Amino acid sequence: MAPGSEAVTTDRPGGAALDVRDGADGKRVLALRGRLVAETIPQVWRTALAAVRESAERPVVIDASAVTYCDGAGIALLVDLMRQHRAGSVEVANLDPAFEALLKQYDPAALDHDLDPEPARRPAVEEIGRTAYGVFRDLRQQVEFLGQSVSALASAIRHPSTIRWRDVWVICERVGVDALPIVALISFLLGLILAFQSAVPMKKFGAEIFVADLIGLSMLRELGALMTAILLAGRTGAAFAAEIGTMRVNQEIDALTTMGLDPVKFLVTTRVIAAVLMTPLLTIFADLVGLLGGAITMLSFSIPFVTFVNEVEAIVTFQDFMVGWVKSFVFALLIAGIGCLRGLQTAAGASAVGDSATRAVVSGIVLIVIVDGVFAVVFFLLDI
After folding, report:
1. Do 162 and 243 fall within a single domain?
2. Is 241 among the domain residues?
3. I need a labelling partner for 159 at 20 to 30 A (CA). Which of 55, 153, 305, 338 fits?
4. Is residue 107 within 8 Å of 76, Cβ to Cβ?
5. What is the tens place of the pLDDT at every residue in 268-296?
6. CATH value at residue 78
7. DSSP state of 350
């Protein structure tokens, strides 16, 4: 070994070894020998990196003439050594042509960058433009989907035999029957809490009986339909988006198109029909359970059950019932439509289905609240 040089070897036979010495022309020479494989190079790797970093101002030559074998780990070592040197140059010399061909597939300069760079900040005007374009694009897709859905539903109404009724009944079970427990729980607690919070202050004026009027009008006109719709948006809308999104990711929707089947007619129509059939029924169920919760609360304020029912019958009209019931049909269309649309918009990727389900829930709830506000204004103007 030349004076001033150092060597590092592995303990096992047939391992890797490294000699570090100064060349005659002022270059730093790293002489590798043996088998450069994953099992033999860890100790050599650390020493070689230290030697290259110490030679920041000098050219470095990696002499691989004595390397007998080199796998992917050995190539990674050579590439890492080449990308560590900043000021001078690093040259790999005398590498076997079979291994050199593998080394040439990697560009150390291309690897020498921040793996997680900070994203460039865009100007505020550009951000506003991108956001506006995204909103416009989403609105356009919603309008297109609305037209396709209306066309598919009109075709199904004209030709009922084309509807896959067996699938409709299966989806009705999932949308309606399976949702009964959560709708019953939320509606009961809603009626109970609303009655209690109203009766406490009204008791000071001896007007507890009018709590029945408040519960009846609130549940039938507003809260029954609204809470049922919000629950279904989080439960059914997300399920529709996840189901259709999974089909999109698995290319099942592309297969339907290839077979000449319209995905909107095949997938969306059945779900919209099921939602339209079940949501109004769930709304009636929620109204009754909410009234029951209010009646039970009023028992603690010395208002008998019969008195509560008679007061509700006296103040609530069939028109009040129809106001909430009509809303439920519109809410059903929104829930099923948004859920199916977000599912069809699912992109590729592991998180795409979850993103679609989230977007379906958020979009559904926002639209439900907006439409409910529009209904309130319209009914007020029409004196309904």
Report:
1. yes
2. yes
3. 338
4. no
5. 899 999 999 999 999 999 999 999 999 99
6. 3.30.750.24
7. T
C-alpha 28/C-alpha 116 separation (Å) is: 32
User: Are 86 and 212 members of one domain?
Assistant: no
Of 37-41, 44-48, 111-115, 307-311, the range with the lowest mean pLDDT is: 111-115
Instruction: Answer whether residue 113 shows pLDDT above 60.
Output: no
If asked whether residues 168 and 87 sit together in one domain, one would say no
Q: What is the residue whose two structure tokens read 């004209």? A: 158
pLDDT, one tens digit per residue, over 138-178 is: 888 878 888 888 888 888 888 888 888 899 999 999 999 99
Q: What is the b/e burial string over 20-59, where b = at least 16 CB atoms within 10 angstroms of the residue's CB?
A: bbeeeeebbbbbbbbbbbeebbebbbeebeebbeebeebb
> Number of folded domains in the chain?
2
Lowest mean pLDDT among 87-101, 288-302, 366-380: 87-101
> What does the DSSP 8-state code read for residue 233?
I
Q: Same domain, yes or no, for 68 and 154?
A: no
Longest dimension (CA), the chain: 110
**SS3 state of residue 10:** coil
Please check whether residue 190 lies inside any domain of the structure: yes
Strands 16-22 and 6-9, sheet pairing: antiparallel
3-state secondary structure of 65: strand
Q: Are 75 and 99 in contact (CB under 8 A)?
A: yes
The reply to whether 140 falls in a domain is no
**How is 190-231 classified by DSSP, letter by letter?**
HHHHHHHHHHHHHHTTT-TTHHHHHHHHHIIIIIHHHHHHHH
- Tell me what pLDDT residue 85 has: 58
The verdict on 176 and 293 lying in the same domain is: yes
Residue 248, amino acid: R
Q: Which residue has the higher pLDDT, 93 or 118?
A: 93
Average pLDDT, the chain: 84
- Residue 184 is given by DSSP the state H
Residues 214, 303 within the same domain: yes
* Whether 88 and 203 share a structural domain: no
- For residue 318, the enclosing domain spans 146-381
More reliable by pLDDT, 108 or 289? 289
User: DSSP secondary-structure letter at 178?
Assistant: G
Q: Are residues 330 and 203 in the same domain?
A: yes
- Is pLDDT larger for residue 136 or for residue 230? 230
The continuous run of DSSP H or E covering 7 comes out as strand 6-9
- 132 lies in a domain? no
